[in-house]
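Action item from last week, closing it out:
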Amino acid sequence: MAAIKNMEGLTNDQINHELQRGAKFVVFQYTISIIIMTFKRGSDIYFVKADESTVKYSWKYSILTFILGWWGIPFGPIYSISSLYRNMNGGKDITREVLNHFNAQQTA
């Protein structure tokens, strides 16, 4: 599993409390194109607290996509629009997958 950012200094109890309040684990997308090759990738996982905006974390991936994503033919524009749309809507919520991973590790 990828590194999880924004959890530094939090105890398990604090993380669980934040999750109950509506916190989530999110991945943002970015697109980079090099003429005929286009790459659509995901960021590291971010722990976004209930009172935080995802824009705080997604803006750099959106700017990267806006500058470098469009140039690949034909998928650059398609993937760029998809990545920007996903980021503007809060990223991909993968809270369930992260919790399932942690629960599987604890039972093993």
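Closing note: The helical segments are 12-21, 55-68, 75-88, 95-107.
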